[in-house]
Amino acid sequence: IQVLLKLWRNGFSLDDGELRSYSDPTNAQFLESVKRGEIPVELQRLVHGGQVNLDMEDHQEQEYVKPRLRFKAFSGEGQKLGSLTPEIVSTPSSPEEEEKSILNAPVLIDDSMPATKIQIRLADGSRLIQRFNHTHRIKDIRDFIIQSRPAFATADFVLVTTFPNKELTDENLTLQEADILNTVILQQLK
Fold this sequence. Notes:
By secondary structure, this protein is of the alpha/beta class.
C-alpha cells in the first residue's frame, strides 16, 4: 500500500487523516520506527505482511489544516426498502405464456380503437399482461383478474399504481382518464 506521512509544526498525519500529536507516546513510537527505517507496527497490521511504500512531506513550518473531504461515489449495492411492490416469487413468464394469456383473455378488444397493454402483478406473485382499449374501465381490469384467477373472486383486494403509489378507488374511470396506459398495476389484498 502507499502511505503519505506529512510532518506539521504541531503533529503529523497519515494520508489525509487526522492530526496526531508529537507528544502522544504511541505517535512518538510510530515516528521513532520511521526514523530507524522500520515499518511501524500500525502499518504492519494494516498490510498483513504486504509491502508498504511510505512517502514523506515536510510541512513543519505550517500548522495542520484539515483537508477537505473529496467526493467519493457510492460503491456499494442498493437495497429497496418499504416498497408497495410485492415480491415476485415465481419466475418471469415466457413470451409464449404471455402471448397465451393475451390470446385466451376474456376481454373484448375493439381493434378500431386505441389499445394499451397493462401488466398486472398479482398478490400471489404471478403476473398477467393484457391488452385493453383506452375506453375500458378500471372495473374491467378487476373483472379480468377474477376471470383469469377465480381464487381472487372472493378476495377483498385493491388495485394500486406503482409510481407514484395511488389506489385506484373510482373503478368507473376509463384507463385513459385514470392515466394508467401502458403501466403496471399492483393487486393488494386488504
